[in-house]
Write a structure and sequence with these properties.
Elements (H helix, E strand, L loop, with lengths): L2 H9 L3 H31 L5 H6 L5 E5 L7 E2 L18 E6 L7 E9 L3 H4 L3 E10 L4 E4 L15 E2 L19 E11 L13 H7 L4 E9 L4 H10 L4 H4 L5
Parallel strand pairs: 2-9
Antiparallel strand pairs: 1-3, 3-6, 4-5, 4-8, 5-7, 8-9
């Protein structure tokens, strides 16, 4: 009996067992590779814009976003928030212009309004407004005041998705702890064909990650802290509602 046979005997494993062990090992490695490839494909398919499309934009491509009601980094007018102590308000009017890009039929505009300052309060980058599939009908497009919820005012093809309180459409800013900075994004992306993939997103960071590399225009607006009077009114009127129990979700 040579050394190799001795060691094999010591381990109590036959040559068949060794081959079986190697087979299992390679199967595990192959499985891991397939999982990694699958995750990569899923990640790419879960983005709003393909890599090849992103790289095709020239240096002159731009998307400019602004509002006729407030300048970038300035205060959002009270009528678009909860200043009246009600969690209903007109949606913000927006205008954007696309330059240096010829949009194709499989592309559309996407709108996201979110509140990164809410992370310290709720753990979520709060989604206030999320709209997909706005058809590119012109290089300059507008969302009029109070367009949310009104298909006659929303751009053609628009689909308003759920926000972080699981309701469709615009949720007005109403920061409970301090003044918050709200970010508006309008991006040129692929048309969202399977909307069910995006119905259970409650954290804007998930959307922003999927927008990486997209052509976007941005706008920031500040909304002041909710007043003590509004807090009392809100708690009294909504004592047993989701909004009351989770009032910090603003």
């Amino acid at each position: 009996m040579n050394e190799g046979q001795y060691l094999l005997g010591q381990s109590g494993r036959s040559s068949k067992a060794v081959h079986k062990g190697k087979l299992i090992k390679w199967c595990k490695i192959t499985f891991c590779i397939l999982i990694c490839v699958g995750l990569t494909v899923f990640r790419e398919s879960s983005t709003f814009l393909s890599t090849s499309r992103r790289e095709s934009y020239g240096k002159r491509a731009s998307l400019t976003l602004y509002s006729p009601c407030f300048k970038n980094s300035s205060r959002i007018p009270s009528k678009f928030g909860c200043a009246n102590c009600e969690h209903s308000a007109s949606s913000v009017p927006l205008t954007w212009r696309l330059d240096g890009v010829s949009a194709t039929a499989d592309m559309a505009f996407l709108l996201l309004m979110h509140d990164p300052d809410a992370v310290s309060v709720t753990g979520l980058d709060f989604i206030h407004w999320f709209v997909v599939n706005m058809t590119v009908t012109d290089n300059t497009m507008k969302l009029p005041e109070n367009a949310s919820g009104n298909q006659n005012l929303m751009p053609k093809g628009s689909v308003e998705m759920r926000n972080s309180i699981n309701k469709t459409g615009y949720h007005p800013p109403c920061p409970p702890n301090k003044d918050h900075v709200y970010i508006f994004l309008v991006c040129l992306v692929n048309i969202v064909s399977n909307r069910s993939d995006w119905t259970n997103i409650y954290d804007a960071r998930d959307i922003v990650r999927m927008l990486e590399g997209s052509l976007c225009g941005s706008l920031e607006g500040v909304y002041p802290q909710e007043t003590e009077r509004c807090k009392v009114v809100s708690e009294w009127k909504n004592e047993n509602t989701f909004q009351s129990k989770n009032r910090l979700f603003h």
